[in-house]
Give the backbone structure.
Amino acid sequence: MAHIKWTEQAHGWLREIFDYIAQDNPAAAHEVIRSIYDKTRTLRRFPEIGYKYRDVPEGEIRILLYGHYRIAYLIQAPDDIAILGVFHGALNIERYLP
């Protein structure tokens, strides 16, 4: 089973998502964040489930879809995954990914 590590940048994106949703509905904000974490746990068993975004020197960046969000992650080794960010589908992730 793969080990999943969240980058500080990815945690920052989650905080922004939470804060935005919580302005109107704190309970929904908690549910969205919990669901995103749950979705990423799928990567432990199926690291290549997301679509391939591009290769980088450190490994392979893939995108896992969840609702309106795209979860960008880096497969550094078969058992080593780094969550790079969680982006709303309307954002141009080219601006944020290496």
